[in-house]
């Protein structure tokens, strides 16, 4: 990692692990570790999940969000901290169990992007296209952290496009009621406005070397990373069938076919299964209920021979974990997911 003249470089020593240099000005401990190629445990990177808990054995950090929901009261009493919400103030010694499975597959990079286009794709979901001067690299299924004007902390959004040698990043953002980040993204940012984006992050990326039939399951705005996975798999894994499940509340939320029907094999090798949980009127004749129940109905005991990718709200993730890992005994190495906390 190189540091500019303005950056203060500090040393992080991991007890019984590697030590590394980090730029103290901007980065959280977590992002500094990942930029240095360290397998620091993490999942959401935005204070919600608690996967990056650590103990501070020496030195000082600034707590960026003391009320972050990723730490319980018990954690706080035991002196635990979140690496994604700890900014380095000087050299530190930390206790955390690093693991190779968390090593970043691509080194994350922070750079400036310009908002080029924004289009509403349903009543509450927008597709946004940002462009950087340099080409961007990421794997299908990964996410980035967006710095938004007037919003405290960063927000995680998954790329919906695939890296193609250009500087394009596309996101599908669902406007959440009273949400600060989505307010800026869906209504506030002007076309041509510049923001900083840091990425890529995440482990739920497409495993192209695995030839098992693919199952993508998207809940709401979980559509974005699943679209990226399906786009790449449809283009390059030409012998692999893809079942794409899209779960949403009512028929006005349906939109996956707008994107998927442009892909090779749509309706044949690539099958879309829409599932509506609360149909509002009489105009819905398709599958109704929870998306995980429909996955079980369609895939059933074939699950052990499939590669699963899924993204969406925590309840959907938990239901799928229970279905696949506990009931259907799918090997955890065949399951890749992001929880939108
Ligand atoms: C890995 C991942 C990928 C995601 N991908 C998508 C996607 O593709 N599309 C999509 O629509 N949504 C996605 N989300 C959800 C998204 O990150 C936001 O949580 C959601 O859009 C609501 O944001 P908001 O700012 O409008 O809501 P708010 O309620 O204002 O903020 C909620 C989010 O902000 C963080 N936060 C709140 N306060 C602070 C603070 N003081 N300091 C730091 N952080 C704070 C929370 O941890 C939470 O992530 C993803 C989430 C994760 C974890």
Your description of this structure?
The protein starts with 8 loop residues before the first strand and ends with a strand. The relative contact order is 0.12. The chain has seven helices and 19 strands. The chain is globular, with a radius of gyration of 20 Å. The chain folds into three domains: 9-100, Beta-grasp domain (Ubiquitin-like (UB roll)); 109-201, Beta Barrel (Elongation Factor Tu (Ef-tu), domain 3); 214-339, Nucleotide-binding domain of ferredoxin-NADP reductase (FNR) module (Rossmann fold), CATH 3.40.50. It has 341 residues and is an alpha/beta fold. The strands form four sheets. The protein has a six-stranded antiparallel β-sheet. The chain has a six-stranded parallel β-sheet with strand order 17-16-15-14-18-19, sandwiched between helices. Flavin-adenine dinucleotide (FAD) is lined by residues 44, 46-48, 65, 143, 152-153, 155-158, 171-174, 176, 179-182, 202, 221, 224, 338, 340-341.
Number of strands: 19
For the sheet with most strands, the description reads: 6 strands, antiparallel
Helix proportion range: 10-25%
Q: In DSSP terms, counting alpha (H) and pi (I) runs of 4 or more, how many helices?
A: 7
**Which fold name corresponds to the CATH topology of the largest domain?**
Rossmann fold
Which oligomeric form is depicted? single chain
Low-confidence stretches: 1-5
**Rg to the nearest angstrom?**
20 Å
- Would you tell me the overall average pLDDT? 95
The CATH architecture category of the largest domain equals 3-Layer(aba) Sandwich
Number of spatially distinct domains: 3
Which geometry do the CA atoms define? globular
Cofactors, ions and other ligands in the entry: flavin-adenine dinucleotide
Instruction: Measure the end-to-end span.
Output: 30 Å
The SSE string, one letter per element, is EEHEEHEEEEEEEEHEEHEHEEHEHE
CATH superfamily of the largest domain: Nucleotide-binding domain of ferredoxin-NADP reductase (FNR) module
